[in-house]
Amino acid sequence: MQIKHKDVQIGERTFRIKKFPARTGSFVLIKVTKILAPLFAGIKMNNAKSLEGVNVDDINISGAIEQLSNISEQDFNYLQEQALKVCFELLPAGPAPVMNENGMFGVQDMEDDTATVMALMVHALAFNVTSFFQGSGLQGLVAGLVSNQRG
């Protein structure tokens, strides 16, 4: 059975992260892999069947930071908006959407809380994207991304 949500604690607040709708998740996955592919290009897979078999010392950290700095503001805003739309703060009256459909924050004190917004974004992307690379028959995708970047 697929897990449909994950609860996370950020500071004193509790949030529920849900799965992306399939169509949104598909496009987010394409965006994320486009951003991450060059990061994987510098990793020596050494016949590893998954990322767990990769030597962390082989990761080019400066190259990773350089690639992340190349993301356009438009792509970043898209990813952040989609990630926040699947996040809900768990309040006594029930779950409240962190971001409404109109792009406005739906809960208090988020407009200037960069740390919480970024943490939610990372949690939402990780929750929604990592399962795609694990045990889904698509583990070869990372190896394919690496070989395509080296060609």
Keywords:
4 strands, 48% helix, disordered C terminus, alpha+beta, 151 residues
Structural features, described:
48% of the residues lie in helices and 14% in strands. It has 5 helices and 4 strands; from the N terminus they run ββαααββαα. Strand 1 and strand 2 form a beta hairpin. Helix 3 crosses helix 4. The C terminus is likely disordered.
Write the layout of secondary structure elements.
Blueprint: E1 5-10, E2 13-18, H1 22-41, H2 61-69, H3 73-85, E3 87-91, E4 94-97, H4 114-133, H5 140-150
Antiparallel strand pairs: 1-2, 2-3, 3-4
Put the structure in a nutshell.
The chain has 151 residues and is of the alpha+beta class. Helix content is 48%, strand content 14%. A hairpin with a 2-residue loop joins strand 1 and strand 2 (13-18).
**Quaternary class:** single chain
Mean pLDDT: 76
State the helical fraction: 40-55%
- Which strand order do you get reading across the main beta sheet? 1-2-3-4
Number of strands: 4
Low-confidence stretches: 136-151
**Gyration radius, in Å:** 17 Å
Tertiary shape: globular
Task: Name the helix and strand elements from N-terminus to C-terminus, one letter apiece.
Answer: EEHHHEEHH
Major sheet, described briefly? 4 strands, antiparallel
Distance between the termini: 38 Å
Percentage of β-strand residues: 5-15%
What's the total helix number?
5
Structural class by helix and strand composition: alpha+beta
